[in-house]
């Protein structure tokens, strides 16, 4: 295990942390908007932005190098004291969310974690590896995104875990499984549209 992880675990003892995973290919203002809304609405101490080393569900998509994706969101977040851009997944050696969550909970048993994602991910959540285990391990906050809520609610996760939906105000203290749908002022930024506008070499132009 990476030697800095045990030291970090002590720093976060007793805290509640929202884990915001994704490709961030590239990061954009919509991602920052969700992170800031999570701080306001979930009662968490911090948001950790986890830049995935890769996305198993997007193997055919042009994926920029890790450092370029990290820089794209880091630049937008700036020095926000409660939004942390972290490379903890590469240091943990995990690719799948389930493995990341389980390792973090083992490493930091005194830290409470909440998983946050956009409604676009809700559609495909039942295709994630060990998705039921994720739902049983951590509360999940699903943030509204334009055009995705309806299809997301028709997905397998909502059908199976519908009875475990709780008000967002209760999520941080809820016993798992628990999830909440978080309605926020919508932001129209889209990584897909940004890549389309900038072309395949977006990292060189950012």
Structural notes for this entry:
The protein has 206 residues and is α/β, with parallel strands linked by helices. It has a single domain (4-205), classed as HUPs (Rossmann fold). It has helices spanning 4-11, 29-41, 66-77, 88-92, 97-107, 119-124, 131-137, 149-153, 156-161, 191-198, 202-205, and strands spanning 16-22, 46-51, 83-86, 112-118, 140-143, 179-182. A six-stranded parallel beta sheet has the order 3-2-1-4-5-6, with helices on both faces. Helix 2 links the parallel strand 1 (16-22) and strand 2 (46-51). Helix 5 runs parallel beside helix 7. The longest helix has 13 residues, at 29-41. The protein starts with a helix and ends with a helix.
Briefly, what is this?
By secondary structure, this protein is of the alpha/beta class.
CATH superfamily: HUPs
Basic shape: globular
Provide the CATH top-level class: Alpha Beta
Strand arrangement in the largest pleated sheet: 3-2-1-4-5-6
Number of domains: 1
Content of β-strand = 15-25%
What structural class do helix, strand and pairing data support?
Answer: alpha/beta
CATH architecture classification name: 3-Layer(aba) Sandwich
Query: How many angstroms does the end-to-end distance come to?
Result: 33 Å
CATH topology: Rossmann fold
Task: Output mean pLDDT.
Answer: 87
Key structural traits:
206 residues; alpha/beta; Rossmann fold; six-stranded parallel sheet
Write the layout of secondary structure elements.
Blueprint: H1 4-11, E1 16-22, H2 29-41, E2 46-51, H3 66-77, E3 83-86, H4 88-92, H5 97-107, E4 112-118, H6 119-124, H7 131-137, E5 140-143, H8 149-153, H9 156-161, E6 179-182, H10 191-198, H11 202-205
Parallel strand pairs: 1-2, 1-4, 2-3, 4-5, 5-6
């Amino acid at each position: 295990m990476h030697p800095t992880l045990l030291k970090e675990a002590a720093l976060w003892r007793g805290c509640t942390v929202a884990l915001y995973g994704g490709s961030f290919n590239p990061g954009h203002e919509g991602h920052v908007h969700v992170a800031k809304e999570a701080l306001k609405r979930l009662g968490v101490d911090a948001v950790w932005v986890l830049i995935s080393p890769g996305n198993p569900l997007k193997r055919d998509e042009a994926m920029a190098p890790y450092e370029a994706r990290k820089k794209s969101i880091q630049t937008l977040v700036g020095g926000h004291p409660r939004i942390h851009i972290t490379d903890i997944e590469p240091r943990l050696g995990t690719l799948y969310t389930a493995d990341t969550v389980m390792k973090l909970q083992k490493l930091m048993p005194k830290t409470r974690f909440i998983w946050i994602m956009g409604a676009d991910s809700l559609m495909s959540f039942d295709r994630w590896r060990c998705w039921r285990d994720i739902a049983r391990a951590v509360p999940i906050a699903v943030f509204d995104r334009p055009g995705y809520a309806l299809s997301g609610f028709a997905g397998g996760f909502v059908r199976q875990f519908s009875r475990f939906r709780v008000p967002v105000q209760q999520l941080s203290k809820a016993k798992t499984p628990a999830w909440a749908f978080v309605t926020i002022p919508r932001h129209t930024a889209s990584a897909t549209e940004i890549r389309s506008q900038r072309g395949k070499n977006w990292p060189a132009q950012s």
